[in-house]
Structure formats: structure tokens, C-alpha cells
Amino acid sequence: MGAAADAVGHGVVRSVTRDRRARTTVVRLSGELDMLTAPDLVPELLGLADDGDRELVLDLSGVDFCDSTGADAFLQVNRRLSKGNRLSLRGVPRQPARVLRLLGLNRSVRCEFAQPAPAGEPDRCPPGRRRN
């Protein structure tokens, strides 16, 4: 497994790790995903996904803030991935998790939340997906 560090979109991408055997790319993000950073993130992620891997995993454990623009970036990437490839979000912290759940993104993209949904807030998972 090799690792390479990239900085893009105001420092949102912290590292990129590829596992050639598993054909997986893990991109660690940090900071804020908003109208300033999300537009730069989409082409970067699509470029990483075009390297022949089956799964693009976004590690959001270092993301402090995500608005609807950041969530839309994930949807754009998910829609534009090659057939047979998939996007997964993991380590999603509380604030981004609330936005993703409110917008229903977790129904179309696999999300592994860092913390369970607060009491009274549904923890919806796409059919066939496991809950965390």
C-alpha cells in the first residue's frame, strides 16, 4: 500500500492512499467542505477515481464542517464514477452527518458515521447497507 499526500481546494485533501490489491483509493479530507472548497474537490476526486480502482473511500474524520455544497460534491462524484465503481464515506463526524442525513445523501452513498444518530433523528441506511 502506497501513500501520497496532495493538497487541493484550500487544503481539504490531506492524503491519498492506494491499495492496489483491493483496488481501493482512500482520500483523507479535513477542514471545511463548503462553497469555497467543494468545487475544487470534485475534479480532484474524479481524477483519483479514474486511476482504475473499484472503490473511492472518503475519510471525513477530519472534516469540521460540511454544508449542502459539500454534500452536493459527493453526489456529483457518485453520479460520475465509472460503472462498477463506488463511493463510500467513512468516519463521518456529527455535524457533517447531520447535513448528509437531512439531505438524504446516506440513502444513495454508503456512509459510515463516527457516532450514532442523536435520539429522535432517524438513522436511515440504503437497502442492503449496514448501520454503524
Description:
By secondary structure, the protein is of the alpha/beta class. It is 26% helix and 33% strand. The chain has helices at residues 38-49, 68-80, 94-102; strands at 2-4, 13-19, 24-33, 55-66, 86-92, 110-113. A 6-stranded mixed β-sheet has the order 1-2-3-4-5-6, with helices on one face. Helix 1 links the parallel strand 3 (24-33) and strand 4. Helix 1 (38-49) packs parallel to helix 2. It is globular, with a radius of gyration of 14 Å. The model is unreliable at 1-10 and 123-132 (pLDDT under 50).
Question: Summary?
Answer:
The protein contains three helices and six strands. The protein is α/β, with parallel strands linked by helices and 132 residues long. A six-stranded mixed beta sheet has the order 1-2-3-4-5-6, covered by helices on one side.
Summarize the SSE layout with pairings.
Blueprint: E1 2-4, E2 13-19, E3 24-33, H1 38-49, E4 55-66, H2 68-80, E5 86-92, H3 94-102, E6 110-113
Helix pairs in contact: 1-2
Number of strands: 6
Q: What percent of the residues sit in helical stretches (DSSP H or I)? A: 25-40%
Report how far apart the termini are.
26 Å
Which shape, going by the Cα principal axes?
A: globular
Low-confidence stretches: 1-10, 123-132
Q: What's the rounded overall pLDDT mean?
A: 83
Tally of alpha and pi helices: 3
Strand-pairing-aware structural class:
alpha/beta
Order of helices and strands: EEEHEHEHE
Main beta sheet: 6 strands, mixed
**Proportion in β-strands:** 25-35%
Nearest-angstrom radius of gyration? 14 Å
Order of neighbouring strands in the sheet with most strands: 1-2-3-4-5-6
